[in-house]
Amino acid sequence: MSQAGLRSRWQLSEPAREAAASAQARTLASEMGVSPLVASLLLGRGIDSTAAAGAFFGPKLTDLHDPFLLGGAQQAAQRIAKAVKESQPIVVYGDYDVDGITASAILWHVLRLAGANVEIYVPHRIDEGYGLNTAAIERLCQDHPLLITVDCGITAIDPAAAAARAGVDLIITDHHAFDAGGLPQAHTIVHPGLPGAGYPFSGLSGAGVAFKLAWAIAREHCGSQQLPRAYRRLLMDLLAYAALGTIADIVPLRDENRAIAARGLAGLINSPFEGVQALIKASGLGGESIDSYHVGFVLGPRLNACGRMGHAAEAAELLTTATGARAAEIATLLSGQNDKRREIQKDVFEQAADQARERGADDPGCRAIVVGDERWHPGVLGIVASRLVETFARPAVVLSFRDGVAAGSARSVPGVSMHAALEHCRQDLDTYGGHTMAAGMRLALDRVDAFRERFTQYVGEQLAEGDLIATVDVDLACELDDLSVPVVEQIESFAPFGQSNPRPVLIAFGLIVDQEPKLVGAHGQHLRLSLRQGNRVMSAVGFGLGDLAEHLARGATIDAVFEPRLNAWRGRRSAELHLKDFRSTQPEPVIDVVVNPKIVSTGPARLVK
User: What are phi and psi of 20, to 5 degrees?
Assistant: First the structure.
């Protein structure tokens, strides 16, 4: 069932089981030595035994599937090993985002260790656009008998045909959705969802695919399943790159992705690659443990900034050949470009939001946003599209106009596959590609109006008016007394967090605002509260919720949706609430809801124990 806060709809799951579910939570809690709340959260994620919990909390490298199971990997490894043996020049053609850059670096390092003559080619975002382009392929084919794509190519029908005409072997490694028009012509396609291959897990990132292929190359080159120490050590070190790409590309952090992310993050802080250490230092993270937040909001944006504001070749250099002063120089450059990107992004977002409102984005009858302008920097369009989705709760396409061409990025909402939407509009598009929730496209400027009409009509058929509000998925109801420091520490051990393993979101009812609300932050944009329930008082912070302070006063009663977090201040650890939304209410609301997982909570909400 759904309930409404001031900012969002709170999605609470309907009951599936009642007493049996609470008994199962108590049993699991007893067997694992965790709180019933934590056991209930595990059940909500499908973890219903101590064995499953052990695998969840302790992901291991043995969780990685055999690389030769990956569709096309063994055939590709054989062709690459032949190129290495015959000293054939190899080009790794990578995308310009974090996933593509890290994937390129993974293959480069393994190929160099094998003795290959290899170089990386990264297209220019503005001049060449996303993915393979025919002109670049034709140029590269003149001197390289083998081209390997990473994180792109699965929809590159024409560029692949150009490689075939030139007599060059093209190996495509990708993880994006297939084009309904068929697969491109290639020597080999390496893809976790390759039809008929039956790979056990289809959710790998581009860097994950590259890591598995690198492993397969090492085995093929060495002629043994048991790799020499140098290869084992290098692959362990390259898990850090695979983790960067996996987390930054927001693929599901389950199955082998969880092992890649967990083991790779653990190795980042002590990475032997000087470029990584320079990036960590330039980001101000030296000495800290690095988690998925740091990848998503600190390291990842810096690696992306190079491709957004200039040319991603420097980011690729940082992760491959850069050492010493050169590594520090590039890392500093990336930080500066990221600062510039933020400034430009702010201006473009404000203009795009104004244009969206002019086109009726606040109207329930408008189910999609398509905006564009010749002034907008192509490097920030994806971020701006994400911000528009957050603001208006509907799919958004943001385009930059240049030389008669509109190129842009799209972001979606649950219920609308962006790839399917663009496929529906393919007659208006020159190129497109991406995922369910994010994609990119290029089209002729004179087709923008037709595309807008076709796109908005398609999205309008997928969404109802009630879908046009941000939704917060709530895992569980609790009371503040349930949130001791040890319990929140147990919740923190669910990390690494990301797609398919988000931070748990809890709901608590009947909280009293214990002190006058405070506005904090440089511009008073954040909200600081002290909340009381019974004898328990907890600190709460609402980032970006400062404008909701007018709905609060000391003594008010609210229901709140939040993430439980640990706060360390002057050596003292405490539990606090990171508010996502709240609503004013009467004290002690009577409810009858079941929140994910399957725990019944009736009357004043509390966890069944």
Answer: -60, -35
Q: Are residues 221 and 78 in the same domain?
A: yes
Instruction: Look up residue 435 and give its amino acid.
Output: H
- Pair 219, 124 in one domain: yes
Q: pLDDT below 50 — which residues of the chain?
A: 14-20, 587-609
Who's near 169: CB < 8 A, 6+ residues apart?
A: 79, 145, 146, 147, 163, 187
DSSP of 4-52: E-SSSEEE-PPPS-SHHHHHHHHHHHHHHT--HHHHHHHHHTT--SHHH
Model pLDDT, residue 1 = 58
Cβ 65 vs Cβ 200: under 8 Å: yes
Cis, peptide link before residue 123, omega less than 30° from 0? no
Direct distance between the N- and C-terminal alpha carbons of the chain, in angstroms, rounded to an integer? 22
Rounded to whole angstroms, how far apart are CA atoms 155 and 432? 8
Q: Please work out, in degrees rounded to the nearest 5, the angle formed at the alpha carbon of residue 422 by the alpha carbons of 417 and 426.
A: 150
How confident is the model over 297-343, as pLDDT tens digits?
999 999 999 888 878 999 999 999 999 999 999 999 999 999 999 99
Stated as kind and residue range, the H or E segment containing 371 is strand 369-373
178 within 8 A of 155, measured Cβ to Cβ: yes
* In a shared domain, residues 138 and 233: yes
Q: What's the rounded Cα separation, in Å, for the pair 597 and 592?
A: 15
The full DSSP string for 242-258 is: HHHHHHHTT----THHH
Per-residue confidence (pLDDT) for residue 402, from 0 to 100: 92
Determine how β-strand 396-402 pairs with β-strand 369-373: parallel
Q: Would you call 166 helix, strand, or coil by DSSP?
A: coil
pLDDT for residue 70: 97
Q: What range does the domain containing 122 cover?
A: 64-242
User: Is the C-alpha dihedral spanning 214, 218, 220, 226 positive or negative?
Assistant: negative
3-class secondary-structure state, position 372: strand
Q: Are residues 225 and 119 in the same domain?
A: yes
pTM: predicted TM-score of the whole model, two decimal places: 0.87
User: Do 147 and 20 fall into the same domain?
Assistant: no
Measure the CA–CA gap between 221 and 209, rounded to whole angstroms: 18
